Each structure stands twice: as C-alpha cells, then as structure tokens.
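QA checklist item 7 of 12: single-chain prediction sanity check.
[x] sequence parsed
[x] length recorded as 62
[x] structure emitted
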Amino acid sequence: MVSVLSTLAVIAMAAVAIVLILGLWNMMKAGSANRSQKLMRLRVATQAIAVVLIVAAIYFAS
C-alpha cells in the first residue's frame, strides 16, 4: 500500500512540475492570459492531490 501511494505521489509531483512549466512558458511567451489562468488552477489542483497522497503515504508508513 505504501509503495503504491509513494509511486502515485511521485507521479503527482511530476504532473505539478509539468503543469507549472507549461504555465510559466505560456506567460513568458505572452500567450493567452486565460490559458495561463487555467494552467495555474490546474497546478493548484494537482498540488492538492500530491499533498494528499504524500500525507497518506506517511500515515500508512508509520
């Protein structure tokens, strides 16, 4: 169970990094402000999922 949660947490952290990079890239190239806003909201959602998975992995590991 812990290894599954740990793997999912790493995947979620990678997703956060990818969405963050996409959002920053869009802002740097003066892309659509609406798209940047959607990407940053998606980043917050993926961060929340990652935090929940990390806390669950720590909880079940102890």
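[x] summary fact logged: The longest helix spans residues 33-61.
[ ] second reviewer sign-off
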